[in-house]
Amino acid sequence: MDSAALRQEAKSGACPDAYRAVRALSVALAAPLSDADATIQSMPDASPAKWHLAHSAWFFETFVLRDHVAGYRLFDAEWPFLFNSYYEAEGARHPRAERGLLSRPSLEEVLAYRAHVDAAMERVLDRPELAGLIALGLAHEQQHQELLLTDIKHALSCNPLGPAYAPAAPRFRQGGDGWREHPGGIALVGHRGGGFAFDNEGPAHRVLLEPFALAERLVTNREWDAFIADGGYATPALWLFDGWAWVRQHGVAAPLYWREGEHFTLAGWQARDPAAPVAHISYYEAEAFAAWAGCRLPTEFEWETLAAGEDPAAGNQLDVCAAVAPTGTAALFGDCWQWTRSAYLPYPRYRPAAGAVGEYNGKFMNGQYVLKGASCATPRGHSRAGYRNFFYPHQRWQFTGLRLARDL
Amino acid sequence: MDSAALRQEAKSGACPDAYRAVRALSVALAAPLSDADATIQSMPDASPAKWHLAHSAWFFETFVLRDHVAGYRLFDAEWPFLFNSYYEAEGARHPRAERGLLSRPSLEEVLAYRAHVDAAMERVLDRPELAGLIALGLAHEQQHQELLLTDIKHALSCNPLGPAYAPAAPRFRQGGDGWREHPGGIALVGHRGGGFAFDNEGPAHRVLLEPFALAERLVTNREWDAFIADGGYATPALWLFDGWAWVRQHGVAAPLYWREGEHFTLAGWQARDPAAPVAHISYYEAEAFAAWAGCRLPTEFEWETLAAGEDPAAGNQLDVCAAVAPTGTAALFGDCWQWTRSAYLPYPRYRPAAGAVGEYNGKFMNGQYVLKGASCATPRGHSRAGYRNFFYPHQRWQFTGLRLARDL
Amino acid sequence: MDSAALRQEAKSGACPDAYRAVRALSVALAAPLSDADATIQSMPDASPAKWHLAHSAWFFETFVLRDHVAGYRLFDAEWPFLFNSYYEAEGARHPRAERGLLSRPSLEEVLAYRAHVDAAMERVLDRPELAGLIALGLAHEQQHQELLLTDIKHALSCNPLGPAYAPAAPRFRQGGDGWREHPGGIALVGHRGGGFAFDNEGPAHRVLLEPFALAERLVTNREWDAFIADGGYATPALWLFDGWAWVRQHGVAAPLYWREGEHFTLAGWQARDPAAPVAHISYYEAEAFAAWAGCRLPTEFEWETLAAGEDPAAGNQLDVCAAVAPTGTAALFGDCWQWTRSAYLPYPRYRPAAGAVGEYNGKFMNGQYVLKGASCATPRGHSRAGYRNFFYPHQRWQFTGLRLARDL
Amino acid sequence: MDSAALRQEAKSGACPDAYRAVRALSVALAAPLSDADATIQSMPDASPAKWHLAHSAWFFETFVLRDHVAGYRLFDAEWPFLFNSYYEAEGARHPRAERGLLSRPSLEEVLAYRAHVDAAMERVLDRPELAGLIALGLAHEQQHQELLLTDIKHALSCNPLGPAYAPAAPRFRQGGDGWREHPGGIALVGHRGGGFAFDNEGPAHRVLLEPFALAERLVTNREWDAFIADGGYATPALWLFDGWAWVRQHGVAAPLYWREGEHFTLAGWQARDPAAPVAHISYYEAEAFAAWAGCRLPTEFEWETLAAGEDPAAGNQLDVCAAVAPTGTAALFGDCWQWTRSAYLPYPRYRPAAGAVGEYNGKFMNGQYVLKGASCATPRGHSRAGYRNFFYPHQRWQFTGLRLARDL
Questions:
Q1: With contact defined as beta carbons under 8 Å apart, do C335 and C375 qualify?
Q2: D192 in C contact zone (CB under 8 Å)
Q3: Chain C nearest CA to D320, separation (Å)
Q4: What is the pLDDT of residues A61-88, one digit of tens each?
Q5: What integer pLDDT is reported at residue A360 of this predicted model?
Q6: What's the mean per-residue pLDDT of chain D?
Q7: What is the pLDDT of residue B175?
Q8: Tally of CB atoms within 10 A around D252
């Protein structure tokens, strides 16, 4: 059983090997980073790499070890204040925007913290009553693996020296130019049956779909260049009111990380591949591009319905520490998270879980949009058809892209 | 045919009497205001009364007279720059946040502008090819009548002297405490058939509803007092993440305009009626209250489906210049606009109209929520079951209230 | 005795005729303004004309009538909250930045307030123990007369229609191009002997001067055009660090109110007279210009020493309601307040007066620079050689100009 | 010749031993810091320790080696962009507020940069035509040594773990409670004669002093506690207008780094010594305290005149890497920089030097106040009687304290 397969297993519960594989990948992702690299925070939306490593350990320490394992002693009684993210039920915490001021504990000390937690976890990995919490913790950790990569990419991009996180990955080409059609009707969406899912993916429920089609591939850098050349960023009629205000206020004229023919990648500044999927676009940009192209964004339910028969572990997703980048793929998953026009709202009869973990998803259901699929930085096995990623419409430091839709 | 009936007529087209009645109400609403009252702007979201009067004249002057009436001469060639609101296709314009600096033109000059436009309009009110644009202009003007009232209420509330716009209106009582149930199923929503509707109300389309119930009346001041007494504003678990941040940042502890047992009204500071509907609450507050009450907000489609057989011109709505206020009613419409949990997004196959008027609705479909019904400040005859009002989740200077929903 | 002479008298105490003349000029200055004009506030630094009229009445009502006249009844018990400016000892007050929201009381009501105060003052104008306070109140009112003019100029300049306050005044020419030299030595500066002075003008004390010269006239618009043409606003080496940051942040490229060959005046947009003194420049601009010209700004003591034998009531100063503007004069006083390089700091052994009026000057002695002379908007008779006007280095909505100095 | 003596020598020119001693102290000060510690920046006013180390090397590399040493090759052609501070003549540079994002180059690489520069400098230390520039570079580096200590103190204080930079230093007691009197008269101030001085310390010139007295010791923590207990931070009458606004906006209620009976030091959180000088106070606080105490701040010239006969290398100043802190001393220098009431302005006939180094001091002469003396973090030998330190009135992260003055 190879490590990607093991991480895939994580979604279905507390398999000890899955635990070890997921936890080991986090440590592997930190290997290229110095203590200083792992400390800096380039904007309030992002967090230091070291913080991600510690926070994902805190999650297991708090919700599994502290709450359910008699006699467990905290690694350090002062650290929960530092590494609680946003759980009000867990009390006061270090301000999010000041995570980059924590030169202490060091990266080495954080790795020792992880080892301490792992040693304690080893003794409870087979306790069935903890399987759900452990699966949640592993899914949580995988989310932070992706954030670690996108956050360090942003941080390195702010350095005029343009340092690389890892060597560049080879380039690929993506699939065909056609459309995948769907006749509409009543579809069943949302999580049902086996395997792990976040609470925001349920309850399963029926939705009514009109006939539609989705593009076979993501919008490419070449197409985006054409949008720019046609004055896309200077034509208010293409934009939402809030989007146009955002363009004007920030002087936006291209996707994040673009400069002339290059873009910043985890391998430093590189020439852009015209055939690769465009990445690092905001919802506003995706919307404007779709309007320019005479198409629209899909709804989350259209996407999910088409994806129902696909392999969510296919495509360009994260397996090992590398300079991941969108390269193109025939798969529906991978390369970039795909903006939908669906506001991130609760499903009918949705109820958050009780206790602190109930703060995981529900309280964010405002002002954000659902993204579907998976990106090159998503640990393979983490996502699925019903997965609901979500970001605010101006955010674009994730690997976010666009698959066009149209009415039939 | 009385004046309220005439204004109701406005929704179905360019009846000359409807034109005159709607236009006359705007002027009547300004009667209690001095030139200075009509000039001030208390926040960027609000506009001066004088500006509303001039802008609604500009709308007819621009989209009817200038574009469709040969030989029409602008009242003043410099004024369109002042009174264009947000139409990019109409060019540059005075900054929204500086509307309150326009002591000139005076209120008297603005009324002369309106008379000039009305005189020109009289000659074209019966031209059938203009009926649609005129109906749009009248619906537009009615929206600004409501804004004029809510904006002047806000402006007067900022004055420590607490001046009144008009004498207080008598108090009423609202309907029963029960629930109106609906079995769910496939419903047809959105505008179809006769009468005027905004473009955002269509196309008509089918939706799937699960069984639900709506409260027979709006949440009252008494219930809101209980929410406060129970620590509603101090319990983060009740709030959306963004809502809790808003509460903390602004020190929110009650609906807008509340102080001790009083609230600010268009009749100045008044004792609160415990049995009247609570008003001036944000979406965040509505959401938190619903969570506290063990209920939820309705979707826009649940509300519309229940309202299909109701009289949209019933209930506490605006007929004449007065200190309007929510008083309670058995009707589904009136008193307060009712927050729904539906994000303000385009209906399937929605396309904005061509030209500048296409900017009316579509470009605002981001980050806002749909409100249904009508308020005490909505001109009677303006709203309907399919009407989609929309505001950002933190906004609460409109007469916004809450009707609870629950799953069956 | 004409009215300018009477106002001059105001500086030496509580002459009843002086009281009446000063108070009447304030009312005269408001004559061209509508209620709406008198209500608006175009920035936090400025105040509505109506507010100036009411605040200067409040000053007499509070510090003379309320404190010293038995049986005086406040015109309105709620108004002191509105019209206290910054006197902490007088308690809470309406926020400065929200003065423009006070559509009530109306201009007419404010004028009635002034008449009420004047009637009560008439009965005490000859009480010798009040002479000092009354002289202070009149000097205070004259300061607000100048502010009323500069504030309404700013407010009208924000209106795209460019309305005029009054008809344009005729143009004059200013004096010679030479220098007035001074040999230096020990000089006595500060207020001594008869007549009114503010507390910040004393105590009189000795200072040591090195030989210096002051220009016979103010820097002109023509010279400023040359500064601009030579890249003055694009050459960081000419600017203070804070000044350069201000230029960059606000995109400053000319004095306030300039556009192409015109500038905004109290008579609306007018062609600039190249020979007139430049006005509406910040300290930063004055400093940069002086560096470019190979000169420097004078100190306050150099200026005062040269001015000791001059007539402070000569030159282009305010006599009646008119569109005052700098026109050029051979006098040392008038046209524009003149920036000095002297920080506004206390003189040796300075002590603020006891009580609320002690807040008049002393607490502002930080971060500002002294300006000397008088402007075209300064009521004639108000200023004197020892007068210390003061503003922050970025402020330029007053009639501020520049007289060059150099070392000998 | 011991190392403190050598560093003292630095002020009089380019003695090679002085160069080595000063440069070695910078490296020694970094010894307790990890790469991450040396990378973080806790506010825009502060800089990372690594940045200080690199910037002071850049200063020598640029103004000595690049400009005056044929054949010198830059260590790295991209680094000047990173390590130029504010020299416009040296072109564009990395934004000040983003210095904390530079995880690369590492601390180790920066130390290699310093060694590279030192090796090249060794070959030119005896060139007499470079002596002035080298002396300037060493004085510059000493300023950054003090900033490195105060900046890392601030950064560590933001960490909830309260890490220590070094072990606590022993406590001392300061001098007597009396006053040192001066009869006033004409004094000669400013730099004259031998030894290094910054351009802002000249030209020497005469000033007129009135009789005055300075306290023999600095204000203590005990006295500050009394000020707080007497409502000092809640009494607006004690404060400058700008100071009171600062108190209200930031909720200031004690010196920086105070919490209950403790304060944060370079040795972590420690109990406060009541007899030690109070430190980390703003000009606003110093001014308010002096008003409360019935005294005033000295002028820079009073201080300098009294200090003329004192040993500027006496007292509690920096010799080696340690947790320096104000402890009390009988010397006029040391413990804390002392706020004066003198605005930081140019001396008569002051002219900045030509070229980029002319930007060193002159362009900052606005809005700041002069501080005299030296602090516990000032390298011994760096300061002198004529030295003019300067900060904005709200800044207090330096070791800033207060010596009272009064008129005689």
A1: yes
A2: no
A3: 34
A4: 999 999 999 999 999 999 999 999 989 8
A5: 85
A6: 94
A7: 67
A8: 17
